[in-house]
């Protein structure tokens, strides 16, 4: 099982705490290129240093800003790999899936089903209220965005999934020895991670229902499927399609997208619909396709920790 079969010699709670700290350090190191670029650009232009994130976002073109921000997650992913390999003495597949190898078909299926839904729903919104959108398409900037989206955005989404649905979920499972605690805790943490997003400031805290609900959805499909593949595909599809299709002046992700949303931000049923309608439908689709059973045990049951493996060299001799 995904939360049970990776508890080996180097997987103590203290090691997970140390590992999380190291990953956080790599996250901060990843901000150095952006900081250097901001300083150089500001000094060369003779302007005063920016004092907030909104001012930083205006210094460079959207593509350059996106590129520099995504480097943060490249550094974070390096930190995750190093922690898993050298601190926990594991392979990346150990925190990815309970299967012998990564199931890329699962990733592509999840990616395709969510990207298709996002494209269709975006077109539906556009044709139902075209006054809320303007065409923002510019060929060269869009092609650059396309390159960034399919190279660096999957690293960003994968880093977040490996932290929440992989590393933290297994670490918290080791601590609590049950499944519901890591599911609830990582879902809340994932949602609260977005609390400083501009969307929250514009729409209010009700939008946190969507972010936390998304965290629960990703956690549920990870536990039910005994691996992160479906979550990896979904998260990548969500961010890539969001970057390519629609951006706005008040969103966290400002890109050279095809459309720009010029409507006044407001909270409507479309914010709650994914959590109460779309995600449950996706759970049904995934459960039918992958024949999920025993929901209660997989989502709330106890975790039976495996004893550390004993090698021939580590056996004691009398």
**Radius of gyration in whole Å, from Cα?**
21 Å
State the domain count: 1
How much helical structure, as a percent, in the residues?
A: 55-70%
Distance between the termini: 35 Å
Q: What is the beta-strand fraction? A: under 5%
Question: Which residues sit in consecutive blocks of at least 5 with pLDDT less than 50?
Answer: 308-318
Average pLDDT confidence is 90
Classify the oligomer. Answer: single chain
- How is the largest sheet built, in terms of strand order? 1-3-2
DSSP strand count: 3
Which series of helices and strands comes N to C? HHHHHEHHHHHHEEHH
Which structural category do the helix and sheet elements fall into? mainly alpha
In this structure, how is the largest beta sheet organized? 3 strands, mixed
Apparent shape: globular
Number of helices: 13
Protein name: CPBP family intramembrane glutamic endopeptidase
Enzyme class: hydrolase
GO molecular function: hydrolase activity
Transmembrane segments: 12-40, 66-87, 107-127, 139-159, 203-223, 267-286
Which secondary structure elements does this structure contain, and how are they paired or packed?
Layout: H1 13-29, H2 32-45, H3 53-57, H4 62-87, H5 104-128, E1 133-135, H6 139-151, H7 153-176, H8 180-192, H9 198-203, H10 208-225, H11 229-245, E2 246-247, E3 259-261, H12 269-290, H13 295-300
Parallel strand pairs: 2-3
Antiparallel strand pairs: 1-3
Helix pairs in contact: 1-4, 1-7, 2-4, 4-7, 5-11, 6-11, 7-8, 7-11, 8-10, 10-11, 10-12
């Amino acid at each position: 099982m995904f939360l049970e079969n990776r508890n080996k010699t180097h997987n103590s709670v203290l090691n997970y705490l140390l590992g999380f700290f190291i990953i956080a350090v790599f996250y901060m190191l990843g901000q150095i290129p952006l900081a250097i670029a901001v300083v150089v650009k500001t000094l060369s232009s003779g302007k005063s240093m920016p004092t907030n994130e909104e001012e930083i976002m205006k210094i460079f073109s959207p593509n350059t800003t996106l590129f520099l921000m995504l480097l943060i997650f490249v550094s974070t992913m390096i930190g995750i790999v190093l922690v898993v390999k050298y601190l926990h003495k594991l392979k990346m597949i150990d925190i990815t899936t309970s299967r012998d190898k990564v199931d890329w078909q699962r990733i592509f299926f999840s990616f395709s089903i969510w990207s298709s839904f996002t494209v269709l729903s975006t077109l539906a919104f556009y044709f139902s209220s075209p006054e809320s959108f303007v065409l923002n398409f510019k060929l060269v900037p869009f092609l650059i965005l396309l390159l960034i989206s399919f190279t660096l955005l999957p690293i960003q989404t994968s880093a977040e999934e490996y932290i929440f649905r992989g590393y933290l979920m297994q670490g918290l499972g080791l601590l609590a020895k049950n499944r519901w605690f890591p599911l609830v805790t990582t879902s809340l943490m994932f949602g609260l991670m977005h609390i400083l997003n501009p969307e929250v400031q514009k729409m209010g805290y009700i939008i946190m229902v969507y972010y936390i609900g998304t965290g629960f959805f990703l956690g549920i499909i990870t536990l039910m499927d005994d691996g992160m593949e479906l979550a990896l595909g979904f998260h990548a599809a969500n961010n890539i399609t969001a970057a390519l299709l629609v951006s706005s002046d008040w969103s966290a992700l400002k890109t050279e997208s095809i459309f720009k949303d010029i409507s006044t931000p407001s909270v409507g049923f479309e914010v709650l619909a994914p959590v109460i309608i779309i995600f449950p439908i996706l759970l049904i689709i995934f459960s039918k396709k992958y024949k999920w059973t025993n929901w209660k045990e997989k989502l709330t049951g106890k975790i039976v920790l495996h004893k550390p493996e004993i090698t021939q060299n580590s056996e004691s001799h009398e």
